[in-house]
């Protein structure tokens, strides 16, 4: 049977959180922490990126910072090997398109992935990076009725669609994740599928 491997991104492919990495690396740690204490993480990151832009930090500055972010040891070779063996690779992540694609492209991994599911991003006509929620914040979010899903993304909803694709193509799913946001999609998998939680991270328990 063919195999579909679904990866989380932050702390599963990348050995850190990409939002924190950019906020810390560009000097906005305090501002980001203050915002995330009062509002959804996704919205806070969009506001921080606006602050960066207003202070003269460019898209290339952000990209340079992202290129320095560490990957999990051996993950690049693992991804390339799985792809070369014919596995269909997908990402389901609460990061954003610009961060993920910049990092994967830097490491020569972008073309290994069939699909990337994440929060959309654009560069507006002012040259400012904008981040938007994957799912409508005003509608009911978590398909499993858990408090582990952030308001902007229920990975379980995405996995339901991916699962239908896998079944149509007679593929078995392997899901790799680390955080509490990965708990919901893991619950949506069939018993014959596999979960690989990162050891000693929240979803491990």
From TrEMBL:
**Hydrolase as UniProt keyword:** yes
Listed GO molecular functions?
metal ion binding; phosphatase activity
Q: Does this entry carry the keyword DNA-binding?
A: no
**Top-level taxon:** Eukaryota
Instruction: Please give the Gene3D superfamilies that the UniProt record associates with this protein.
Output: HAD superfamily/HAD-like
The protein's UniProt keywords, in alphabetical order, are: Hydrolase, Magnesium, Metal-binding
Pfam families on file: Put_Phosphatase
Chain positions recorded as Mg(2+) binding sites: 8, 10, 178
The record's active-site residues are: 8 (nucleophile), 10 (proton donor)
Question: Which positions does UniProt annotate for substrate binding?
Answer: 19, 94
Q: Which InterPro entries match?
A: HAD-like_sf, HAD_hydro_PyrdxlP_Pase-like, HAD_sf, Pase_PHOSPHO-typ
Q: Which cofactor does it need?
A: Mg(2+)
Q: In its UniProt entry, what is this protein called?
A: Uncharacterized protein
Write down the species: Stephania yunnanensis
